[in-house]
Amino acid sequence: MPDYGHELVFGSFLTPTAKDPQQAVALAQLSERSGLDLVTFQDHPYQPAFLDTWTLLSWVAASTERVHVAGNVLNLPLRPPAVLARAAASLDLLSGGRFALGLGSGAFWDAIVAMGVPRLTPGQGVDALDEAIDIIRGIWDTDERAPLRVHGTHHRVDGAKRGPSPVHDVPIWLGAYKPRMLGLVGRKADGWLPSLGYLKPGDLAAGNARIDDAAAAAGRDPREIRRLLNLGGGSFQGSGFLQGPPDRWVDDLLPLVLEDGIGTFILGADDPSTIAVFGEEVAPALRAAASDGRAAAGTATGAVRPVVALAKRRAGIDYDGLPATLVATAVEPGDREYARVRSSYVYSGSPGLVLRPHTPEQVSEALLFAREQDVPFAVRSGGHGISGRSTNDGGIVIDLGALDTVEVLDRQQRLVRLGAGARWGDVAAVLSPDGLAISSGDYGDVGVGGLVTAGGQGFLSRSYGLTLDHVVAAELVLADGRLVRTDDEHEPELLWAVRGAGANFGILTAVEIEAAEVGNVVYATIVYDASDTAAFVEAWADLVESSPRELTSFLTLVPARAQNPAVGYAIIVWANDDTGAAIGALEQFLDLAPVLQQQAQLVPYAATVSAPHGEHTGGADSAARGGLVEHVTPELAVLLGELVAAGDADMVQLRAVGGAVNDLDPAATAYAHRTQNFSLLASARGSRRAQIDAWWDRLAPHLRGVYLSFETNQSPARVSEAFPPETLARIGRLKALYDPEHVFDGNFGVAPLPSEAPVPR
Description:
The chain contains 23 helices and 28 strands. The strands form six sheets. The protein has an eight-stranded parallel β-barrel, surrounded by five helices. β6 (148-151) and β7 (156-160) form a beta hairpin. The termini are far apart.
């Protein structure tokens, strides 16, 4: 029989004895320490001498860090499939993707019936298991919006809500021996899990053949189905099958790999020394012997993607040419994790491949691979960007979420190192105990990389400046795959460019930033009746400009809806714990317009930007327009009032960006806008996108520049507004040095400019 080429996996099969409850847990922990990959337990809910297997699985998952856990096999008749599906997904989520679902149709029916379940014939048991698999996979399928309906003979759901979805593709393994069960394995399961003690000579070959035929008839590749085997007994003394020293075990087991296709061996033993030797000596020796045997036979090894998943691959991507270091974490459209990684906060993307590197070296490999493909690529740090440029349709996304370290390098110097994939809420939480903070937007799920290279307009802007103003070093992967570090002594021109135009020069992997001494802050929210929008906006802006630098405020305007008036929602942060001074400043904001609601509290800065780690599922096709404003003049206030009254925008927002932001020389960073006091943003969905464009034509005379992260229009005209002429020319000349082929052109791309070219006007 064929070798299916599966990577070898080794596990233990432990007795869930209730007499000594901690014994099974200790043996599971020993299994992990010994290098085993899997811990399994038999499931006999009617057996009072045993612990409940599901409870034990949960306890063991919480008591270990690496091993996967599974029932061997779970008794389906006593575990309703819809509830089992949710329990399995929950345990998979809680364990970080370490659960496998072994299922059986039921064997000891007298005991099962005694627990209150109707008796099924063997044939009915197979039918019930078939229906249960449809229900379980249906509950997990959160991509499907319609409620789940399965009208089986033995199991029914009628409109069940789907979810949660497991964190990884939870395999379903079936304990099977008879022809109909083997056929079900081939049609629907991910693995066959028999026990060697129940098999007669030739049963493995016959079972594989039946499974393969059923798989082929169902349009599946038989290699999709892992072949597992429970091994009973065994001793490292004596003679006979699985008796004697480890090398004799290897000789006994190797034919099962090369001739019968077994990819997972699970040892039934409760003896600690046997488990330890199996994991520490037998497993690595058998892996090596199997590798040699496969090499000699020319057997293809590795995971085989399901046929249904292969059918979803996109043209222009060499999936089989993906570097080996990226394969395990890559996500394709046919993968269960695809729904979690396909979209950004605002855009429902459908990329052909999402790469999730874990090191800068892997980022380099991902970039070089992406460059060789005939599709666009995008880079994602957090995916929250309003512009939606961190995903695409049919291309490649390089997701930096795994590069999420947050480290205080030098508390005295307030020097902090951040991975590009870290979320700002997590950054704030780590820095808070040290009394440090970094101003970083207004939402904790935003990723470090996108914000820190574009600007960083945050709740501390007027006292601290932009986030990028305090970047002292950056590490990037350049267009040619090189890893570079830039600071004041090493390629300082590149550091200048990273601070404001970083997306043009490479993929940021880490930055070092000087944090501010910030402990508690006063965080206030005031909701206004903004019916007289123009007068309110002008008064708010004047008050913000005249307030002490400790005060930063963001104002969001929402148009009137039905019987509700237009509303102004102001967030105000006072950047220290001087509550007396804060109250004096805040009280003036209560006189700007009728107050509908107000609240102020002293909180750690981290509480203002907590990270909920929500999933990004995209939304309606939206447009965002941004602009920088020196002062909110009466004329501009009137226009903004008319925009809100027209209802052509879902929301209009003004952020205070004066104070410390404007202390820097405009030439100090590629973000050159150092005279403006406010950042304006408006967004609209669907048919109103064109209307927003028309409004921006009217607003243009009052705007002085563009903030990259708030702009979906990447026309050349907008690029020239984002960067003044001298800045744009400097960026272009550096592009000619660092990215002459204009590889990074997807995020306000600036074309390389020859050194002798005139400054654009």
